[in-house]
Specification:
The complex is a heterodimer. Chain A is about 50% helix and about 15% strand. Chain A contains 14 helices and 9 strands. In chain A, strands 1, 2, 3, 4, 5, 6, 7 and 8 form an 8-stranded mixed sheet that branches. Chain B has 2 domains: about 40-70, no CATH class; about 70-305, 2-enoyl-CoA Hydratase, Chain A, domain 1 (Alpha-Beta Complex). Classes of the chains: A alpha/beta, B alpha/beta.
Chain lengths: ~325, ~300
């Protein structure tokens, strides 16, 4: 398992406990069960202490943890019979954006999400979760399909940004995202958006206009990544920690600002420490949100959705 | 090498002045002072020829030599498009707050103070309503001189309100974009302005009110990825840089130089994202004709109904 710098004390202690337990189980050592128990208590305290005082930058690191569940993992573990649908019917199939129908305890939903890869080959195949215009157009095609068949839409956001490149510009990256923002505002079906990892800027928002926008506990969502922010405003790559604080990009800060509708708790240490529990939490939250949203009429949902985004912004008058 | 200074004989007090000031003091009264002083020379960044500010202004800030479009702001665009430069400004008292107490190398509040003082603008966009060749319209125009024309809460809110105004009064809307993108110092609040303006445009679209998006140099980032690309008519000024990712970012990503003309207005027409390019001198007439044709249709429809 990949260990982040700030998690080292926890991981070291975990190793010690493992060894101590082995010793305690063997007859020849004088090590008591109680000693092991004490160590475990220390570990528990240490973990609680560490994970309740994470800095913005540490949460950004957790959001990018290579062992974290990705969109596909969530879809496969919270729904049955997922049928993936491909292509934007125009230029191709964007591997960084996946989607299709799945069933959550009998309720058919349309899943759409950015997909990252786990090894070098997969990462390249998925373009690091950075979608091209055809990815956003595929997402919109699937959203319209969901609308046609009156099925709710669940988007799973996890991207370091929309792809910057020659082809992306030629094919209108800006237009593709802009169109999604406009079209998503008026979708007749419920839309629940969940940030499951990184929520970087327009690339994230391009599938992020929903009735309910939720963030997993250890994720980030902002207008720019802390690294790029550091490079532009500080003119150096060295201020990413400061930028992460200044941007107030963590789930708790985003909720305080009223820019998201809720936070989905993660197991201690992050989603990857207990994926089963993570899937259970997110599934329960999706079901709860859909239940509420389905009580509203399409018109009520659209008015509330447009009003919600219209009220975002702080200014003096 | 040794350097020797040679002192030249100086006839102090005996030099004939080249110009003689006959009267003391500056004699031009404040009333006589022109907004744009005459006789100040501008160099065209494209053809390097010198042009007087007066000539430039008379030519709508287009170089008479090679047609280069100088970067101008809301003041000049309002003068060009509104009849006799007459308009009523909307929501002009909206000013930026600093909700995040954002500090990078310097506090956001100091950046704002500086921008308020140097530009005499309240933020990076002004919106107004008035007549264009007799047609009632709403124009929202960005000012690049204010923190790079960046979109924060004020820009987003003013655009949203301008869209609402256009929708309620059924006046055609023109948004003139000129921006580096979202304002980082308002972080996610800036990001959400993209969703807000696009949602408002969805309502305008439903209401059947025409929207011309004028893309000027430069239009990039979150502005391109929201309202700027959502026009019924996307129109650009010649040579304008228009893109989602900035050229520097793309260059760094792909590791090679960008082809000539990449992300230019002409490039966007070629790739199908801009309807046409308009010279600033013909802009008002062309927009009037376009909107006139649409209005004709509406009237005919009303008659048959």
């Amino acid at each position: 398992m990949h260990v982040l710098d700030f998690e080292k004390p926890v991981k070291d202690l975990e190793k010690q406990i493992e060894k101590a337990r082995e010793l305690a189980e063997s007859d020849f050592s004088g090590l008591q069960e109680k000693t092991v128990k004490d160590l475990e208590d220390t570990l528990d305290k240490l973990k609680k202490e560490l994970y309740s005082h994470l800095t913005g930058w540490q949460k950004v690191q957790l959001s990018r943890h290579p062992d974290r569940p990705y969109a596909e993992d969530y879809i496969n573990n919270i729904s049955e019979n997922f049928i993936e649908l491909h292509g934007d019917r125009n230029i191709g199939d964007d591997k960084a954006m996946i989607g299709g129908f799945g069933s959550i305890d009998g309720q058919t939903v349309m899943f759409i999400g950015q997909q990252k890869g786990r090894n070098t080959k997969q990462r390249q195949y998925r373009n690091f979760g950075m979608a091209n215009p055809e990815g956003y157009r595929k997402a919109l095609r699937l959203m319209k399909l969901a609308e046609k068949f009156n099925k709710p839409i669940i988007t799973l956001i996890d991207t370091p940004g929309a792809s910057p490149g020659l082809e992306a510009e030629e094919r209108g990256q800006g237009e593709a995202i802009a169109r999604n923002l406009r079209e998503m505002s008026l979708l007749k079906v419920p839309v629940v958006c969940i940030i499951i990892g990184e929520g970087a800027s327009g690339g994230a928002l391009g599938i992020g206009v929903g009735d309910k926008v939720l963030m997993m506990e250890y994720t980030w969502y902002s207008v720019i990544s802390p690294e790029s922010c550091s490079s532009i405003l500080w003119r150096s790559w060295d201020y990413k920690e400061a930028a992460a604080e200044a941007l107030q990009l963590t789930s708790d800060k985003m909720l305080q600002q009223g820019l998201i509708d809720g936070i989905i708790k993660e197991p201690l240490g992050g989603a990857h420490n207990d994926p089963a529990k993570t899937f259970k939490n997110i599934k329960a939250e999706i079901k709860k949100q859909l239940k509420d949203l389905l009580l509203m009429s399409p018109e009520e949902r659209i008015i509330a959705r447009v009003d919600k985004f219209s009220n975002m912004g702080v200014y003096a008058e | 090498m040794d350097t020797k200074f040679v002192s030249l004989p100086c006839n102090k007090g005996k030099i004939m002045p080249w110009f003689k000031r006959i009267k003391d003091g500056i004699l031009t009264s404040t009333d006589e002072k022109k907004e744009v002083p005459e006789g100040i020379w501008n160099k065209c960044p494209s053809c390097k020829k010198a042009i007087t500010t007066r000539d430039l202004e008379d030519n709508n800030f287009v170089c008479p030599e090679d047609g280069y479009h100088f970067r101008i702001g809301s003041k000049q665009y309002f003068n060009i498009l509104f009849d006799d430069g007459i308009f009523t400004e909307l929501d002009k008292d909206l000013k930026a707050a600093d909700p995040l107490k954002f500090i990078d190398k310097k506090p956001y509040t100091s950046r704002l103070q500086e921008a308020w003082q140097t530009t005499e603008l309240n933020d990076a966009l002004r919106s107004a309503t008035g007549k264009m060749n007799g047609i009632d319209i709403v124009i929202a125009c960005m000012d690049f001189s204010f923190i790079g024309g960046s979109m924060g809460s004020v820009v987003g809110e003013k655009i949203a309100r301008a869209i609402d105004y256009a929708r309620i009064h059924q006046f055609p809307l023109i948004i003139i974009s000129k921006s580096g993108g979202a304002r980082m110092m308002e972080a996610a609040l800036s990001l959400m302005q993209m969703a807000k303006t696009s949602a408002k445009l969805a309502l305008l679209d439903q209401a059947g009110v025409p929207f011309i998006s004028l893309l000027t140099d430069p239009t990039t980032g979150g502005v391109t990825a929201s309202f700027a690309m959502l026009g019924d008519f996307n129109v650009a000024e010649p040579g304008a840089l228009i893109g989602f990712a900035g050229p520097r970012v793309i260059k760094e990503t792909i590791g090679k130089d960008l082809p000539k003309g990449f992300q230019s207005a002409e490039f966007l027409v070629e790739h199908g994202f801009v309807d046409f390019i308009v010279n600033r001198k013909e802009m008002k007439e062309k927009f009037t004709h376009l909107l006139g044709m649409l209005q004709e249709g509406t009237k005919a429809k009303k008659k048959t109904a």
